Amino acid sequence: MFIPQLVFPQESQQQLEELRRNIAQLQQKISGLAQSESSELERLRALEEQIDLMNRLVGRLRRQEIVKRQEASATVAGLREAAAELQRLQTMGARRAVFFYKYGRLKDLEMLLSSRSLNQVLLWAEYQRRLLANDRRLLAGMKSKQERIQAQNEKLAGELAAHEKMLAEKLREEQTLRQRKQQREELLKKLRKDKSFHQMQLSEQQQAAERIARLIAAAEAALQEQQQQQAAPPAPSTGESKAESMTPALRLPAEPFTGRRGRLPWPVSGEIVGHYGSYRHPVLKTITTNLGIDIAAVAGTSVRCVAAGRVTTITWQRGYGNLLIINHADGYYTVYTRLAEIFVNLHENVAAGQLIGNVAEAPAGQQATLHFQIWQRTKEARSQDLNPEEWLQ
Length: 393
Known about the structure:
By secondary structure, the protein is α+β, with helices and mostly antiparallel strands.
């Protein structure tokens, strides 16, 4: 019996523990800020970071819960097949027992007395030998099936227990996440009337742009170093393999990124509500710059990679939340932010159109959006932001 499986990236226990540890550290920070005279802005930022990390944790737990449920379903299917096979063997055994009960030795004696030659006796003896061997195989088969069913029952019990544990943890984390979001809404109601809140948001966007440029510069330097190592002649073997520690080579797309200007698929379907370039802030009335575009989407909408490349950065950034950077070779990078969950791992090669995450939920009264940027490392070793609207089809 075939059980369809949903394919998810491997969720290691180490990754889950790291998320739990970071969430706990942020909770300690939030509790400390609440007891001190610290500003509500600091509490809000710590709370937002915790919410984004909890979104990732809950997403991973949901995927693990689905996998556990699929494993249990597959075991149940195997159990049914084994039970059906055992029933078939038992039916055959019952027929043999009835035949032996009805005729038994009387049939054997009748055969011996009616035999006209030694050859017939020998044929009868060979038939009896094969019949006995078949009965032994039948008994062995039934015993094997019974042992298999017992083992699968034990496996199923373990899988169901693991599923129940995973489900309980997921429900607890979802409840905590709802509480944190409610706390965020209460803080935002107070802060939206404060001009310093909007000034802080602008400052964070500027700091985020500078950090993204640094992250891209670091990724480009690491790529160049890797390429130099691969181009260098191999060192004499020392008997120790270093292959396990090396970053996988970047899989170059069939068509260079630079040749796809105006033909890139959209990372998410939706209307652009924040255009690239300068704009006047609605509250502060100052001129600021958007280094990417903001695409309106329903929270949870799938986000897809616009071109083949490799994941170079997975992090959290103030003002943007969960952030993902993908290198497309030739110095081009795409940036995806305001993600609830991230479905790829660091240094993973990704294909064009591959699912990489989903859109995060926005605070009450705001539109959920994906913030998308395109960057290029120039020959002068500078990180230059590009207008995504000129690249999307």
